[in-house]
Amino acid sequence: MINKLLIANRGEIACRVIRTAKKMGIKTVAIYSDIDRDSKFVSMADQAYRVGPAPSLQSYLNSQKIIEIAHDSNCSAIHPGFGFLSENADFADECTTNKIIFVGPPTDAIRKMGSKSESKIIMTNAKVPVVPGYHGENQDKDYLFEQARSIGFPVLIKAVLGGGGKGMRIVTKESEFFEALESAKRESLKAFKDDRVLIEKYIQKPRHIEVQVFGDHHGNYVHLFERDCSIQRRHQKVIEEAPSNINWDLRNSIGSSAVDAAKAVGYYNAGTVEFIFDLISNQYYFMEMNTRLQVEHPISEMITGEDFVEWQLRVAQGEKLPKTQDQLKIRGHSIEARIYSEDPYNNFLPGNGNLEFFREPKEEPGVIRLESGVREGDDISIFYDPMIAKLVVWGKDRSAAIGTLNKALNDYKVVGLPTNLRFLRTCSQHPDFLKGEYDTGFIEKHKKDLLQQVTKIENQYIMSAVVSKISQNLKNTKLHSTLQNFRLNHHKSENFILKASAAFINTELKYEVNVEYPGNGLMNITIKNPSKHTVIKRFENVAYTLTTESQINITSSENTVNTDFLIRGEDCVVFNEFGDALHFTFENNLVENRSSTSNDTQDPNIIKAPMPCTLVKVNVKQGDKVSAGQPIVILEAMKMEHVIKAKKDGVVKAVKFRDGEFVQAGKLIVELE
Ligand code: ADP
Ligand code: ADP
Ligand code: MG
């Protein structure tokens, strides 16, 4: 029996596991790194122990220390979550040696499935179809090139120990092979301490379909149907849905292939068998097996009505699987959207920062489920995964689920760091997504539509920003009501110069706003173009009421609108009807002028570190001629490589850092002229 459980993870999955443990009457112990001390998951656990400093190697990957804490706190089991030690067979072994139950599969199965090469050989023997390719030991680059040629381009190079889309490169033609190989090896060495690769036929129009499986210690196996995870960027999932759009014949067949895969390695506990489904030939092929609970497991829970963490804990303490295959049914449709801190407009570069303002949709049991590990005020740090939350919705059919997804996405309001919220919304409203017609190339194919930026914003929001600002200026003075009366009842006017910006606005928007107080307690607000002094829009008889700390109701002769806003120092953030944050900077304020920093991010001559990173390679030296689009620096952050390209033609004026150096966010790396 498990009576006390240590969760060797952090963030949302730690919260998720603790929730079920509580329900089952199991006591929980959290471990935290220094920067996680005040996290939500720490406050949810019955007990919490410090595991080490922020870097995961010294904290969430410090297996020895984790086992020590499990002993000290009398835990009989460890749940590894996903990521970190969840697929680390040595750790699972250490648990067993120390008489602690590892809530997961047998170590032998982790080892076999941890290698994308070995698992493919085992699957071939078990008659599970695998992607054609080279999975052998020979890593000689000319030999690999010959293999790629005989498979036929395009091919995909993958890290043998890969995961999370890292160390993967598509090679469309022979001439690109060696560079891609080098870069894939470099990335996998960093992420997995191993640079072996395999080569696969690159399937051109595939769907990613994966099957949830479970086994117990008594030789029982079931699958809990499949998920479609084809909406991906950087080979990483962003939107997943269950069930996938396949017929029951195919569902039964892919389900039993997945169970065959699990049986072939004597599997027990939760696992996911990933297949690539070729839409052209209607064939599915085994890709890999993930020997853990998966990020997107909630959508399968929603359609089956089962709690997989509960299943995991029951299996781990020796019980039989709670249900047989016949007892499992699909009910309705579920979708998950992963909300990340990242910049979709800059190649999905991971972001970080403080969640200064964080509003979520309302949970509705069985319909809207929020899986998040953060609260307002928390940091999304560069040390861990940049995922902020998962939104999981359920509907009686796919279109009902999409409707709920869109409604709930609109209810998120985030300030402090970049997010992919607007991008998720445009994805989930795209006609092809609505029709269910997509493959793994969806994002790439529709990039232009999905990442469309705008060049103007509605006048309503400019007015709302100014009125919010006025309301706050007045609120901050002690003589609030007297002053307000004075201002509104005496003839007077004031001028504001403000700039609007948002991730999806690709130009500088500057406005002059004149506010008149004609003496009747109301305002007349005129928005003007500051350079031409032409009137863009005039609102008359404007009045406002603060409905909450961060919501203002504004009426004018033409309409009445509720707007959420946030005052950030001298700036004001206004949320549009979709929850997008519009930032307004007031230029004629007495406080410091912030425009200088925002200016040089626009300057195409300046190449700066977009986040704390390590320089992998600077491709240029002083005096080199470069042309627009040319890759200038390769940097590595969060274990991934990012390429920064020149925005314009030019000559390199200065290179400030060398290969291998650590660079802080915002530091100049290369300057052009
Ligand atoms: P999937 O489970 O969908 O195959 P991934 O491979 O993206 O997805 O999930 C595993 C990844 O989850 C890890 O590589 C790691 O980056 C990330 N991860 C690990 N721990 C957490 C956590 N607590 N919260 C969010 N993400 C995490
Ligand atoms: P990881 O361990 O990083 O999750 P996978 O092998 O599961 O790596 O592949 C991740 C994604 O890359 C898949 O979901 C799919 O979109 C794409 N992919 C993988 N193999 C192929 C292939 N042979 N052809 C086309 N796309 C592929
Ligand atoms: Mg995978």
TrEMBL record:
<protein>
    <submittedName>
        <fullName>Methylcrotonoyl-CoA carboxylase subunit alpha</fullName>
    </submittedName>
</protein>
<keyword id="KW-0436">Ligase</keyword>
<dbReference type="InterPro" id="IPR005481">
    <property type="entry name" value="BC-like_N"/>
</dbReference>
<keyword id="KW-0547">Nucleotide-binding</keyword>
<dbReference type="InterPro" id="IPR016185">
    <property type="entry name" value="PreATP-grasp_dom_sf"/>
</dbReference>
<keyword id="KW-0809">Transit peptide</keyword>
<dbReference type="InterPro" id="IPR011761">
    <property type="entry name" value="ATP-grasp"/>
</dbReference>
<dbReference type="GO" id="GO:0005759">
    <property type="term" value="C:mitochondrial matrix"/>
</dbReference>
<dbReference type="GO" id="GO:0005524">
    <property type="term" value="F:ATP binding"/>
</dbReference>
<dbReference type="InterPro" id="IPR011053">
    <property type="entry name" value="Single_hybrid_motif"/>
</dbReference>
<dbReference type="Pfam" id="PF00364">
    <property type="entry name" value="Biotin_lipoyl"/>
</dbReference>
<dbReference type="Pfam" id="PF02786">
    <property type="entry name" value="CPSase_L_D2"/>
</dbReference>
<feature type="domain" description="Lipoyl-binding">
    <location>
        <begin position="598"/>
        <end position="673"/>
    </location>
</feature>
<keyword id="KW-0067">ATP-binding</keyword>
<dbReference type="InterPro" id="IPR001882">
    <property type="entry name" value="Biotin_BS"/>
</dbReference>
<dbReference type="InterPro" id="IPR000089">
    <property type="entry name" value="Biotin_lipoyl"/>
</dbReference>
<keyword id="KW-0496">Mitochondrion</keyword>
<dbReference type="GO" id="GO:0004485">
    <property type="term" value="F:methylcrotonoyl-CoA carboxylase activity"/>
</dbReference>
<feature type="domain" description="Biotin carboxylation">
    <location>
        <begin position="1"/>
        <end position="448"/>
    </location>
</feature>
<dbReference type="InterPro" id="IPR050856">
    <property type="entry name" value="Biotin_carboxylase_complex"/>
</dbReference>
<dbReference type="InterPro" id="IPR005479">
    <property type="entry name" value="CPAse_ATP-bd"/>
</dbReference>
<dbReference type="InterPro" id="IPR005482">
    <property type="entry name" value="Biotin_COase_C"/>
</dbReference>
<dbReference type="InterPro" id="IPR011764">
    <property type="entry name" value="Biotin_carboxylation_dom"/>
</dbReference>
<keyword id="KW-0092">Biotin</keyword>
<dbReference type="Pfam" id="PF00289">
    <property type="entry name" value="Biotin_carb_N"/>
</dbReference>
<dbReference type="GO" id="GO:0046872">
    <property type="term" value="F:metal ion binding"/>
</dbReference>
<dbReference type="Pfam" id="PF02785">
    <property type="entry name" value="Biotin_carb_C"/>
</dbReference>
<feature type="domain" description="ATP-grasp">
    <location>
        <begin position="120"/>
        <end position="317"/>
    </location>
</feature>
<dbReference type="InterPro" id="IPR011054">
    <property type="entry name" value="Rudment_hybrid_motif"/>
</dbReference>
